[in-house]
Structure formats: structure tokens, C-alpha cells
Amino acid sequence: MKLPQAQVAVLEAASADEQRTIDRIAEAADLKPETATRAAFELDDAGLLEVTERTTSDVELTEEAERYVEAGLPELRLYEAAVEAGADEEPVQMGQVIGASGLEGDAVDIALSNYARKGYGEIDSGELTADPEADPDADDEATALDALAEGAGAYARETALEDLDNRGLIEQTETVIRSVTLTDDGVTELMAGIETAETVGQVTSEMLTSGEWQDVEFAEYNVEADAERVVPGRKHALREMAERVTDVLVGMGFQEMQGPHVDADFWINDCLFMPQDHPARNHWDRFALDTPEAIDELPADLVDAVESAHREGVGPDGEGYHSPWDLDFAKALALRGHTTSLTARHLSGEAMGDLEPPQRFFSIEKAYRNDTLDATHLLEFFQIEGWVMAEDLSVRDLMGTFTEFYEQFGITDIEFKPHYNPYTEPSFELFGRHPETGEMIEIGNSGIFRPEMLEPLGVDCDVMAWGLALERLFMLATGAEDIRDVHGTLVDLEFLREEEVTY
Amino acid sequence: MPTVEIDPDELRYLTGYDEKDDAELKDDLFGLGLEFEGETDDGDFELEFAPDRLDRLSVEGVARSLRYQYGDDRGVYVPSTNDAEWTIRVEDVPEDRPYVTGAIVRGLDMDDAALESLIQVQEKLHATMGRQRAKGAIGVHDLTMLKGETLKQDDDSAKSITYTGVDADDETMVPLEGDQELTLREVLEVHHIGQDYADLVADYESMPAIYDEIGLFSFPPVVNGRRTEVTADSRDLFIEMTGTDQWTVDKMLNIVCYALDARGGKVEEVDVEYTDDAPVTPDAGSDLVRPDLVSKTKTVAHGDIETMLGVDLDEHDVVDLIERAGMDAEPTETDDGTAAYRVEVPPYRVDVLHPVDLIDDVGRAYGFNELEPRYPDVSTVGGRHERSRLEDAVRDRLVGQGFEDLLNFHLIDEEQNYERLNVPQPEPSSGERANGDNREQGSDALGGGEAVTIEQPYSEDFTMVRSWALPSIMMVLENNTHRAYPQDLAEVGFSAHVDESENTNVAERRTVAAALCHAGASYEDAKAALRALVDAFDKDLETPATEHPTFISGRTASVVVDGEEVGVIGEVHPEVIVEHDIELPVAAFEFDLAALQ
Description:
A: 20 helices; elongated; B: Phenylalanyl-tRNA Synthetase, Chain B, domain 1; Phenylalanyl-tRNA Synthetase, Chain B, domain 3; 4 domains; seven-stranded mixed beta sheet
């Protein structure tokens, strides 16, 4: 029969008459103990060898215990000093006894706590008495400690060992000792002669090309052992979410928009029929730029049309805002507060020429808000923006589109709460059921663009639009609680490494 | 979103539904779009409102809307008014605040709740339509404390007050919540309300002031005088409003008049006489009678209502829905003969700018959530923008090469962007530039472009748009020194700098940045990564030696792709590494994404 080398060596080192320990076998066979153990068990499985086990316990002194073997247990030293000071007759100041005992630091506390426990005397109100009946020479713990130090631990009392263990003076370990004997089958096979099969670790190039692999036995690995942790490259968790949303929208027929982050207020607000004195356009909420200050050129015809819509409204029964309108303000630059500026640029034809209905467009791009940073709000966030341009769109089309979109993310039972936006009418806040918690939560803002917005842009059909923050969708989908851990320079790499992938 | 505080007992009283419990009321309010946010210490409801229906800024207005919702009221209601006894004469007013309006309300049985509601509607109107009093400011006075100047000697029932402009040092008054006579300048300087609103009149050539025969009693838009202060005992009120726009103050006045009418007050008209001395008003020399409680009419096509709601309605339904929205509708035809409605809109509505707003009201009365969603039968072809596909392809390559992808803020501060990377901060090029003046904008080094800066940043950590991405990556390395290495990080992101050749004067750039940070990270590692990336896009890469202040001299090269210099690569200088408290070497590169196009 053919066996791996280690098994052959163990078999040869074993005896049929005598139990031999694995350590002894390993030494005789010139194997590592763990290799010999594994080989022994394999032979046991094959019925060639019998493995027997017994358990022995072993006691070792800790460093602290070693010190006490030298100097004596602290409570005994305290007792001796107490007796010396006459505490067996009347109470003595504790400080005096401690000073005389030579105990210092932790040893003082250890001495005091064990002193009373073991009946060497009383400690009360800073004074100490010593029991004249106590016999330090008969101290079980001291005796056991000395016995262990001399290697005669087997004779120590079980209770004393327990006390020492509790005091952290000894470490008890249990060892399994395995021994082997040859079985009859083992003897028979040995008599018949056993050949050594070669085992290999790594599969080498040479082995493969030479054909040697056909004759070898592969060493077994511990396939359950842990492997080294590697940090693979991976896409940012929030980016994965953006990609997922992009996939959904492209699948629904939406085309992607891009455009400037720094833009004129004209594109960001005026084209959206936001009055110039709207509270959101005051200097605190706008992310106005210091340098540079203004755009060079705006399309003149469009500026006229937009200004007229603001001042006079559109249509025979339209009326405008009773608000000032100033070209310089329209030209002032800001970081866009919403990506609807891209929508304005696309609808006007500025971005890619005039668009004929039907169209669907989206973007997942950054918008900026001049505010303070907290766990759920950032100064810059990704806005998902989408719109549909077609003839005769209705509120039902809007509802159908958003119901479809949110269902892709497990958000159902969409409710449409009538709302107000300066540039849409009707407008709706969108609420949906959280896939995990079942709560109704706000998931976006939507509406049909007003004629005062569309007419100046030259659009003569309907456009419905909606927006929401990607971060909000991310937090809903992943349960992340502090968005600052995810997006931005304060990111925790560990979070990114461990975050479940989105697909 | 703004909130309004409503006492539920007042609401029960004013709607006539004493038996409604709080939960029912909350549901009814939600139906109006007024969301319950919480309760105040006094047990009032705090309701969030969208700033279109400003007529719902008072408990009286909310009660009116609820009665329409319950179907108890239908159609337009306009309070009747008595003829004017009082006149507001407008003379020599500051050009920055030329408009005024006014009304008298008599016979009020005020109590603390009514007074509280009156104060709230003033505050909320100031905050919304009034644009913090800049556009419209309200003054309410106890009429019995006013002594009108007699206009005609033989008719002492015709009285007037005067809105005019005065010098800040010439006149004195005792302001509300004050106890001494102050000049208007002193009011602005020492009185707490005066200080709050001093900015509003800082540039006025004269101070707005309203007089009766006794003297100055109101200093709009800053503070009223103490003499005419309204208390819970006041029965007759004089309301004046000044502002920068007649329509705005008139509409604010209408909302207040409707609220006081609901309290049992009788509205009395006031003549507003713009004298020849009034400045640039279109109404100069003309008389107005206020409040202007006249409905306006708009025409909305039946087909537009059906199209926008996506349902078929008959004429009777539409008229019913419009009446339930507190308006009146009369079927008519448009010029081209299609069915339409002439809709009468009450004078307290400030949000109806276009017939589309009427369709919204019809939808709300119908119940938008009653509509069945349908997926639009519109076919379009979806697709990604080319640049976003490129960004994504680069990101995929970098991730495949083992980089962890980052997504950093675009905003940063000057110290992080320049100084901590050893890059000299460019001088701002502010001010006019003569033609042909080609002063350098920032330095040539990557990242050294002139900063695009924020005017009024909330935080000193976010004052500019980053001019390159490497500083962000260094910050991430700095914040993660307790995390496992290697930290090989990359970002395909956004950067910007001032560039006067662009229409927006800003060059917006997509940038590819990567840093290797681990024991033994070297130039060679960075170059290997860069080479793999550039090769994947079938471009030609050269790296001629260069100098860049962020990198170690002699271990820095330009990134030249297809013959064009597009970035920099090198081993980051120990000074920069130590500055970021990093204890391992960093090799990095950054270049323009467009190079891989």
C-alpha cells in the first residue's frame, strides 16, 4: 500500500505493544508535532493505528506569585508587622503597621483585603488588630504556593488552588496527551511493506509541464483557516447608488444632462420663475460667488422673455410678480442651488438646441446649499432631477412615472401631497413607505412646470419634473445615519470598505 | 418651511364645530396642506404651511378654508364696507417707500386670543409677502387714540392723517415698548426694535413718518408709536401699510381685513390721496379707495382642466369644485368657442397668477390622491452623457487597479487647497482689467489656478471651489491614519478655477487624481498605475521631468498624454506628508479627464 510520507513515518515509529505519546513519535519520525498528530488521526481513520487521549492539568505560577514565594504573601507580612507592633493586644494605627511591614503600592491593598478575609484580624476606622490565635505558618495558600514552587503541586489542596486562582497567582492549563498503538491491521500492513507517496504543497509550473503532477499526492490544507484580509479597490458606496439610479432612469428612457456648477442666477432661478425677492434668493441662502461675480453673456431674447414673464405674467389672464427684476442680479454667479438650472438650459435650447417632444431627461449631479453641516445635511449633495416633456401631460402621468421609479427601490404606496413651488403647478411632495421600517417618509418634490416658466423658454407642450437628494435615497436604502461618514473628505475608509454593495 | 400657530379651541369656535377632537382637526388641516408639526407650550398647534396661501396665516383664515372644505361655505365671500371718513394724505414721502394703503375696522370685540392672532398674522405677513418689512410693513393702531386733522372746516367727520418723509433728527416719538421721547435717529440707534430694522431705512433720503394732528405716531417700517398701541380692549382699529409696491401692501391689507371681519369687525374704507408732492408713483395726484376688496376674474378652459387632471368632468362638477375652493365659476366660451369658465377669485388670494392655479384648486377640491396613476404612453430613448460614460470607464479602470474610489466635497478652504500642499496661493484678479492686460491668473502649477470663492460662507472650512482634487485625497489620508494600509485612493471628480475666457468666467474641469500610500509607495508605483490607465484608453504617455511644489524635486514629472501636458505625477514631498500627519510615503498623480477622451 502507498501512504504519504508522514503517515509512513508515524506508522514506523509506533509500537503494537506500548502506548507512545505523539510527542515521542514526532521526535522519532522527525516530524512537527502537528503533522504527526494529523497523520496519526488519518491512520486511526484507516484502522492502522489507535489514538488514545488523556487529559492532564498543569499549574504555573504567575509573576506576582513568584514574588510572593520570595517575600511572603503580603497579608502574612502585614500580620507579622502587626504582631510586632502589639496589635494582638490592642488596636494599632494602620499606617504605622503598613510602614513597618515594608509593603508598598498595590501590595498594600492586596494585604488589607486578604487580611480580614483570612481571619488574621480586624480593620476598623483606620486601626488594625491582630488575632493572636492565627497561625501564619498554617496558611493554606502559602503552603500551596511553596509546594507549587518546588514542583510538588500535585499535593496542594484543591481549595487552596482555587483561592490562588481567584487571586490571579496561578494559571491552570489542561493538556490533552495523545498516545498511539499499532492495530493488528497496522502490523499486517507494515509487514507487507508500505511505500511512501510523495505529497506536494504548491503546484509549480515545472510540475505541470513535466507531467509530474500525475504522480504526486497533494498535501491537504486546512481549508477552514482564515485568510489574510485584503482591501480591494471598490467604487464609492454613494457612487454605486448613483449608478443604480442611473440604470433605472436610462432603462425608463431618460437621457442624461450635464452642465455648469457655477452658473448665472438667471439660469438657476429667473428661468424658473423664481421672483428675485424670493426668500431663497437672498444673500444668505444663495451660494453667491465673490470671485468671479457675473456671467458675461446671456441670450438677449430669452432675457427679455423671462423678464416679461416675471413682470407681466404670460397669457391673457396671466399676471406677474409684483417684485423688482434686475438684469445685474440675473447675471450674478452662484453655485447652483439645484440642478434645475440644467433643465432650464436644456428646455431653452441653450444646452443642445431646440428639443421636440417627447423627451425624457435626467441628471444626478451636485447641488449646493449655503448652510451648516450636520448628520443629514451637507453643503453639497447629489440631486436626482428628472423631467418628461410631452403633449398633454396630466397629473396622472406624473403619478404613474414616479410610482414606477420608486418601486424600483422598494418604495411603494406613494402618496402625493399637494404643495407649493414657485415654478410648478400643481406641485406635490412625494411620500412613500420605507421598505424596512414601514414608515411614511418624504421622498421627493415634483410638479408640472408653470406656463410662466415654459413659455419664455420657448416650450409649447407640457413638462413634468421631480427631484430628490441621492443621499436621502442612500440613507433610506442602507440605514446609514451620518451622511458625513459617507460623502466628503471626512469619510471613514472603514465605512466605505465594509458597506454592502448596491446593485 | 414657515409655521403658523393655531389655537384649536379658536378654530372650533370660528368653524362652528365645537365637537371636533384634536385628531380630527389635524386630519382636516392636513387635507388643506397644513401639516401638524407639534404643539406649543400653550397647547397651540404648530402647523407647517407652504407660502402660497398667505390668507391662512391666521386662525380666522384657516377656519375659513376649513368651512369651505366642510362644504359649509361655498363661493366667493366679500365683506361689506362702510364709506370712508378718513383720508391718508401722501406728501413728500421717501422715494424708496412711496406706497401706502389703509383701512379702518370698527366694533371689534377683541380678547387676548384675537389680539394674539392679529399679532401673528402681522408677523407672518411681514416674514412672507412683506419680505421682512422691506416690501410691505403693517402698522395697526387704536383708532380712539388718533386725532385726525379736519379736512373741511364745516365737516368734522372728514379726518386725515399724513404719510410723509422727515429728517431723522427733527422729530421725536415714544416708540412701542419704550418709555422716553426719542428722535427717529435715536430710535434706530438705541431702541431694540429700531436696531433690528435700522438697515431697512439706512439708505433712505428721509425717514418715513405718519402724523395725525397730535403728531408723529408711526415710523414705518420700523416701529409704531406707543400712543396708539392696540390692546385687548381696543374696539376700533386703524390699519396702515407702507411699502415698495401698491399691489403688495393692498393684498396684505386684504388678508388682515378678512381676518378682522371674521372676528365681527366692520370694515370701513379709507381714502388714499397721493398729492402732487408724492414721488414717482403711477398714482400720483390720484385718489384710491382702500381696502381694494374686489374679486378678479380669470378664464380657464374646461379642456385644460381635464387634460391636466387626466379625468373627464362635466360642467356641473367643475362649478361645484370651484365653489368648494371658495371661488365662483360661470360657464362661458373662449374666443375660439371652446367651453370654459369665468372664475371669480376672492381678494384675499395672492397666489393666483394664471389660470393654471385655478386648475390646481380644482384638483385639490377633487382630491389629487383620488386620481389613478398611469404610466405615460410616451416613448423615448434613454442614454448616458458621453462624459459621464468616460468618467465611469476611468473609475472602473482605477478600481480594477486596486484603488478605492472617493467622492469628496468640491468645496474646500484656501489653506487646504494651496498652503498645505505647498502651492503658492494666487493673488485674486479682482477689479477691472484693461483690454489686452494678460496678467497671469494664478500659477502654472497644477492646482495653482485662481480660486473661485464664496461670498458669504457659513463655515471657514468651505470658502472656495477646489482647484484640484489631490488636497481632498490628502485630507482623507489624514483623517484615516488609524485605518488599515495600504490606502491607495483615487477620485474622478470636479475642480474649477477662474478663467476669464469662459462665459461664466470659471473653467470647470473633470480631474483624475490618485494617491498610493503604503510602505514603499514610490514614483515607480504611481507611474505603473498611470501607465496602465492611459494604455487602457489607447493613448500615448510621456513623463518628462518637471518641478511642482507639492512633490519631491527630481521625482516629479509632467503627465503628457498624446503630446499634451495635462497633469503632474510624483512622490509627495515629506513636508506635505508630515503636514498631514501621515507616516508613510505618498506617490500621486492628477490629470485632466479630457485627455483620455
